[in-house]
Each structure stands twice: as structure tokens, then as C-alpha cells.
Specification:
Layout lengths: L6 H25 L4 H22 L11 H25 L5 H9 L1 H12 L7 H18 L12 H22 L7 H24 L7 H29 L1 H4 L2 H16 L8 H15 L1 H12 L1
């Protein structure tokens, strides 16, 4: 598959940043009335139901050619790495780590994707300019959260929580790269399969970790439904389209947008104080993104002008 970055790619990237940047707030609300494993399970199950309805309405299209056994195995692995494992790790880890740590850790996804994509995905060669741009953007993310990333919550399982969040980032990185290994495939079908496999796998896991699900109150149910329908089903579809078209490296840029959105929303909705470094950090992040994707940006601008 050839890598194509267009103005639509940038639009999808910004949309994903907006959606996922608000997800942390909704997870916090859901965790007040539901255990971590069941928060993860509920969002995947809601998403799987919605995606299955859409997929069925479109005739159950999936692979554009007869898949091999290796293709099927890769598909299952991508599903586990895209939903079951990271959703569970993140929901559990967020109980004992700061949101600043979670935000910065998610920004490290790109540095895991770069070497993986360089050696395994055609057209995703790791170049010095791109690496420098990503590094500048990462500095902006660290500046945004400041010293909070090193703050301790004092939680009993904080170390394990940090490892869980780091594991989440690793899952997304490996899953994104492996998604590019799949043969030509229908985007709706692929997004649906990821959620269906994830739901089947996460249901017994939730029972094993947290026992039977507690009965959610109305507020928790709305939060769970919102998590399943928007940042899981909808954003998962956009993620599939973006990775398959623009590549996992470009997709990794979303993790620089998410901390900015979550910081602004935290101040707007929760009354948190905006960091004094917000504008400077935002400028650094934008410069880093521009440097890393300079060739793609110039192509998009020239096409728009013509």
C-alpha cells in the first residue's frame, strides 16, 4: 500500500485528537460507578454492537482477496492490541497514575512506531528530519505538563499503574504497525472485526479481574455509552482509515494533540488551572509536527493552491 497524506488526513488527525483528548474525562466519570475492567469491556461491547450493525448493513465486506492463515492470525493479534489489552491496561492504570503521566506516556507511541515501521513497513523510512520534528513535539508535550509527570499519586500500585500505561502505548504502537501488514481490506469491516474480537476476548477477562459487573447508575451508563460510541467505535474507524492510508508514523502525531486538548478541557470543564506554558508548548508542538511532516505539508498546500 502506498502512503498518501492529504488534507483529509490532517482533518482526521485533528478530529482524533479532539475525540481522544476528551476521553480521559469521560473515563474518570465512568470509573466512579464501574470497575476498571468493566469500563474497558463496556466501551468495547458498545462499539462492537454499533460497528456490527453498520458492517452488516454494508454486506459484511472484509478482505478484497482470499485471506491466508497468516492474514487471519495477524487480524486477531491487531484486534487484541487495538482494543482488549490497551483498554484494560489504561483503565486499570489510570486509577493510580497522574493524568500528566498518562498523557506524556501516550506521546511516546511515536518513538516506538518509528523503528518498527522503519524496518517492517515500506515507505515508512525513519529520516533525520522526521525524528527531529517528533523530538521537538515531544519536548512540547513535556513542557505542557511540566513537572507533574514526575509527581507521585501515593497509590499502592502506582509503579504497576505506570507500567500498565506504558504497556498501553506499546500495544497501540505495535498494533498500528501490524495493521499496515494486512492485505487490501474494507475499512468498515476491519474496524468492526477489531471491536468484535476485542469484545469476545475482553468479556471473560473482565469477569476474571473484577467479577460480575456492577449495575451502573444513569450517569455511569451514559458515560460508558459515550465511550463506546464516540472514542471507541467512531474514532477506531478513523484510526483504521488513517493508518491504512497515511501510515502508522503519521497516525502517531495524534498523541501530541491529545495532551493539549485534555489540558484545555480540564481547565474549561473541571476548573483546573491552565499551565503558564500552554501557548509556548503548543507552538513547539506545532513546529515539531510541521518539521516531521514538512514534505507532506508542502504537497497538501501546493494541491490546495492549484
Amino acid at each position: 500500500m502506498s502512503r498518501q497524506i492529504t488534507w483529509k488526513s490532517w482533518g482526521m488527525l485533528v478530529t482524533l485528537g479532539l475525540v481522544w483528548g476528551s476521553t480521559f474525562l469521560v473515563i474518570e466519570i465512568a470509573l466512579r460507578g464501574m470497575t476498571p475492567a468493566w469500563v474497558a469491556a463496556a466501551r468495547v461491547i458498545f462499539a462492537a454492537l454499533l460497528m456490527t450493525l453498520i458492517w452488516g448493513a454494508r454486506g459484511w465486506a472484509l478482505f478484497h482477496q482470499r485471506p491466508t492463515r497468516r492474514d487471519a492470525i495477524r487480524l486477531v493479534i491487531v484486534a487484541l492490541l487495538s482494543s482488549t489489552i490497551p483498554f484494560t491496561l489504561l483503565a486499570w492504570g489510570q486509577q493510580s497514575v497522574t493524568s500528566a503521566y498518562a498523557g506524556v506516556t501516550m506521546a511516546t507511541v511515536i518513538f516506538m512506531v518509528l523503528p518498527l515501521a522503519h524496518f517492517t513497513v515500506p515507505g515508512e523510512r525513519m529520516r533525520l528530519r522526521a525524528f527531529v520534528g517528533f523530538l521537538i513535539g515531544f519536548v512540547g508535550v513535556v513542557l505542557l505538563v511540566g513537572g507533574q509527570v514526575f509527581s507521585s499519586t501515593g497509590a499502592e500500585f502506582e509503579t504497576l499503574g505506570r507500567l500498565a500505561v506504558l504497556g498501553t502505548a506499546a500495544c497501540y504502537a505495535v498494533g498500528s504497525v501490524m495493521m499496515r501488514w494486512l492485505p487490501p481490506v474494507d475499512a468498515i469491516g476491519l474496524a468492526s472485526i477489531l471491536m468484535i474480537v476485542g469484545a469476545v476476548a475482553i468479556l471473560p477477562l473482565a469477569f476474571a479481574l473484577d467479577g460480575p459487573p456492577p449495575m451502573p447508575d444513569a450517569k455511569t451508563f451514559v458515560a460508558l455509552a459515550a465511550l463506546g460510541l464516540i472514542p471507541t467505535a467512531g474514532a477506531n474507524f478513523l484510526r483504521v482509515v488513517l493508518i491504512r492510508s497515511a501510515g502508522p508514523t503519521f497516525m502517531g502525531l495524534v498523541n501530541y494533540i491529545v495532551p493539549v486538548i485534555s489540558t484545555v478541557l480540564g481547565a474549561w470543564i473541571l476548573g483546573e488551572t491552565l499551565p503558564s506554558t500552554l501557548l509556548v508548548a503548543l507552538a513547539i508542538i506545532l513546529v515539531g509536527m510541521a518539521i516531521s511532516q514538512w514534505e507532506a505539508l508542502t504537497r497538501v498546500v501546493s494541491r490546495l493552491r492549484s
